[in-house]
Amino acid sequence: MEDEEGHKYLASYMIDAWRARGGHAAVPAKVRRESFCDSPEIIFTHGERQFSFFFGKTPFNDPQADTLISDKWLLFQTLGDQIPLPYTEFVAKDDPRDDAALVQAILQKAEDPHSPLAFPLVVKPSEGSLSRNVFIAHEAHELARAIRANRDDPDNGPGILLQRYLGDEEGLFREIRGICLDGRTMIAYERTTTQPIPDNVLTDPAHWPGVVRREVTDPAIIEQIDSIADRLHEDYGVCYVAFDMKCDRDGKMWVLEGNVAPLGLDEIERQMPNGGALIHAMAEKMLDKVMAHAPQLQYHQDYDSQGAAGPPEPDFS
Ligand SMILES: Nc1ncnc2c1ncn2[C@@H]1O[C@H](COP(=O)(O)OP(=O)(O)OP(=O)(O)O)[C@@H](O)[C@H]1O
Ligand SMILES: [Mg+2]
Prior knowledge:
- The protein is of the alpha+beta class.
- Helix content is 32%, strand content 24%.
């Protein structure tokens, strides 16, 4: 998700939205900018309560919701039969078996026609990010390498996931991300490239050569993302989440994982003609949510009467 150009984060878009809404006149907030930090922070205050936006992080999700989304194994265990997640198994990094024995046990399963695990297999850390140590293993040797690399990494969770590969002979399925707020898809896009993808970055779409984001508006796709987001919102308190997804050849959407503080909004703005407008609409909706937590603030009135006065300068501290 890194890129060479200047970054802009959700927090910055929230500051824009807040200023456009009338700044302090609409809702009290404090803006922090530190020279050593790439993202500003905006903290809305309602009496004792504070709502902070920093990098891609919002104050909206229940704490358990953040854990559920960040722990890919917990997500599969909790929701494996409720939302479309690829079949997944877990092995502990500190499993007492040595690599050879562990690989042998997995091989046996992968070769058993009754087991849902089969080659090619995706091997990845149970709580990873930035595509670190995500491998597609086609045979024993690659499996052993992927297991070793994950065991050598003390971070990114205590486990290694073995997951069904979402692709076929023609290659990986379409790579789609759905950014959702309160059970609704706010932004959906596909990452594509016309250039060949080298094997070593197959599982790292941020580094595909020539990768671009294109908006996805297909109602059949949006409906599926909405329905997944709605389930997580209603039953698990997940308000803001970006799903990394795959769309198979039949048009079925699969959830690979979720991110509760996604980055890359600036790339969306740069690459999608409609991107700026979509992000703006999402920030507006987030600001509405912040203000809805403060019943003493009659923001519609304030906005109408004072919004035109121009945004005040933010506090620097
Ligand atoms: N089961 C799978 N089948 C096919 N491709 C997969 C699978 N799991 C992961 N990938 C590929 O690897 C990428 C990274 O995997 P995933 O999103 O699970 O890990 P991550 O480390 O959280 O990545 P990031 O932070 O870059 O989104 C996916 O976007 C996808 O391209
Ligand atoms: Mg991902």
